[in-house]
Amino acid sequence: MTPQEEVALDEFLTENLRKGYIRPSKSPMASPFFFVDKKDGTLRPCQDYRALNEGTIKNAYPLPLIGDLMDKLRNAKYFTKLDLRSGYNNIRIKDGDQHKAAFKTTRGLFEPTVMFFGLCNSPATFQMFMNDIFRVIITEEAILIYMDDILIFSDNLEDLRRKTNRVLNVLQENNLFLKPEKCIFEVQEVEFLGMIIRPNNIHMDPVKLAGIQQWPEPHTVKQLRSFLGFCNFYRRFIPNYSSIAYPLNELTRTNEPWKWNELRTNAFTTLKNLFSSQPALLIPDKNKPFILETDASKVASGAVLYQANSNGDLQPCGFISEAFGPAQQRYEVYDRELLGIIRGLTAWRHYLLGAPHTTIIWCDHKNLSYFRAARRLTPRQSRWNLFLSQFDISITHKPGKDIPGADSLSRRSDYGTEPDEERTLLPDALFIGRIDVDLHNRIKDAQTTDQLANTILRAKTLNIPSPFKFSLDDWTIDSNLLLFRKHIYIPDNKDLKQQILHLFHDLPSFGHPGIFKTTSLICQHYWWPGLTIFVKNFINGCAACQQMKINTHPTTPPLTPIPADPSALPFQSVSIDFITDLPLSNSFDSLMVIVDHDSSKGIVLCPCNKTIDALGTALLYHQNVYRRFGLPKRIISDRGPQFASHVFQTLCSRLGIKSKLSTAYHPQTDGQTE
C-alpha cells in the first residue's frame, strides 16, 4: 500500500471501530479491501464482495422507478430535500451473520456490524426499511424516497412545513440523522436524482451535461458503453432515442466487429447535440386531454406524449423510443406504424387507460385512421386490436412534417432509405366505415316483427326474468337496434341473413373464405341463433366455392367387380354377411346371409344371434352349406370380428380356403351380400 493509503486505512479503521460499525474478526472467510479515488482527490475505502454476492440469495424488493416518482410531482411548487447521514450504516447486520462480510486488511481481519456498500442486498434492504418507517406519509403521496434521498413537496409553503415536521419526527423516532450541508429547504427549484425539478417542469441537470459537447469519440466497446450508459439515464428526455442510438448499440453486440464509420459518427454527434439542448418535460395531469404522437422507421419506433401547459401550448410529457428486433424490422409499414402506437399506449398506460378525455393519436400513416373498421385482420393485428379496445382513442392522420417530434429523427437518411410515397397495405375495399344504410333499415324493420326481439324487449321493459337461458344483461339497445353481447341481432329472416353472407363471403375483397373464417368475420358485427349452421349450409351451396376450390374429397375410381369363375361349382366361392337386430323369432334376432358368388347366385339364410362368434359362424356354415356343397375355395366377407379373428383366419388357412376381407369402411367390396 502507498503511504497515503496506509493513512486512509488507519483513519477508516479508527473511526469505524469507535462507532462500532466494525470489529475484529476470526471469520474463516474474507473479502478483499482496497481504495478508489474520489473526484476531490481523497480515497474511498471499498470491499470487494463479488464472491460473497454470488452465493447470496437475492432480495427481490423493488427500488422505485424514477419515472414513477417524477409523475407524482404534478402541481408541486415548493420543495424540501433531505439527505440521510451514513445511509446503509443505519441497518445492522443480523447477529451471527457478521462474519460472512468480513474483509482483510494489512492491519488484520475485521467484520462489519452494519450494512456496507457493495453487499448485493444493501439497496433493497435499505429501501424496504425507508418505505416501512415512512409508509403512512408515502401513502398520502406527501414525499418521494429513493434510498437515502428524501424529497418533500407541496403546492404551498404552509403544507410543506407541516409535512417536513412530520418527516423530521419520524427520523427522530428512528434515530436517523441528516447531513445539513446536503439538505435544502423551501425552494422552487431542486436537483433530485439527476433531474432539475421546477413547478410542472423537469429538466436534465446542466452540471451533468456540461461536458457532453467535449465527450470524445469512443475507440473501444468499453468507452462506447460508458457513453451509452450516460445516455440511457436521460433517454426519456430525447425523442426517438432508440432510432438515433441504433447504430451505436449495434457495436456493443457480442460478435459485432468494431467499425466506426460516418453513420455512427452522425449518431454520436446527434445525441450530444440533443442532450445539450436540455429539453423540459411537463408533468402530466390525468384530468386534462392527452395527445400521443407516434412514428416508426425501419429500425425503431418513437412516441411523444403531449399535453397543453398553462399557456395552452402543447408541451411534451415524455419521449419513448425502442428499436425493432430482426423479425419486427421485416414487418410491413402498416404493422410497424401500428406497433409504434401499441408501444406508446403501453408506456403511458397508467395515464391513458380510463382517462376522462379521448386520447388523440397523431400518426403519418393514413390507413391507420381506419384500423378499427378493417373487415379483415391478421392474427397479430387482431391481438393488437384487442389491446387497443381498452383505450378511448381517436387515430388522426398527420403528415410527417407536422409531427416532427416522432417523425424527423426516425426518418434520417443515414438510417436507411425509405419510399417517399405511402404504401397502401390494406386497400379501401377492405374497410367499412359504417353499416350500409339499406341493411341498417332492413334489420331495424325486421326486429320490430321478430318474436324473439319482441320477447326480449318486453322482458327488459317490464323488468321480468329472462324466458331464455341467457341473461337480459346480454341484450342492449343502440341506435334503435337490438344488440346481443354488443353484436347486432339478426331476426329469423332468410333473405336478410343471405344478404349478410353475401357481404362477408361473396365480395371480391374476401375471396370466398371457408366456413370458420366467414363465421369469424360475421361474428365481429352480427349474431343470430344457429349462425354457424346457416353459414355452413350457405357455403356448401355456393357454386363458386364448389367449382373453384380444391376438392378435398376426390371421386373414387370406378368399381371393378371381383371376376367370377364360369366353371366354378355352386358355393365354391361365397360371400358372407350378417343381418342383425331383427325382431326376435324362436329366440333368434339375426340372419347369416351366404351368397353363391360365381355360379348360381343362390342364397342360404341361417338364423342366429347377434352375439355369434367365429366358431359359431364356422359351425353354422358346416350345418347349412358344407353338408350339401362341401368346402368353398374362397370366402368374401367384411371385417367383422367373426371373420377377422385369429380363430377364423387359422381355420381357413388349415382348410385351404382363401379369406378375402373387404376394405375398411368400403362395403362396396362385398356388394352382393350387402
Number of strands: 27
**Would you tell me which CATH topology of the largest domain applies?**
Nucleotidyltransferase, domain 5
Q: Name the CATH architecture of the largest domain.
A: 2-Layer Sandwich
Strand content: 15-25%
CATH superfamily of the largest domain: Ribonuclease H-like superfamily/Ribonuclease H
The count of domains is 4
Strand order of the largest sheet: 16-15-14-17-18
Largest sheet: 5 strands, mixed
| Coarse morphology | elongated
Based on secondary structure, the structural category is: alpha+beta
List segments where confidence is low: pLDDT < 50 over at least 5 consecutive residues: 408-435
Radius of gyration (CA) equals: 42 Å
Separation, N- and C-terminal Cα atoms? 105 Å
What is the mean pLDDT? Answer: 82
Helix content: 25-40%
Helical segment tally? Answer: 24
Quaternary state, please?
A: single chain
CATH classification class of the largest domain = Alpha Beta
Pfam families: Integrase_H2C2, RT_RNaseH, rve, RVT_1
GO molecular function: endonuclease activity; hydrolase activity; RNA binding; RNA-directed DNA polymerase activity
GO biological process, one term: DNA integration
Keywords: Endonuclease, Hydrolase, Nuclease, Nucleotidyltransferase, RNA-binding, RNA-directed DNA polymerase, Transferase
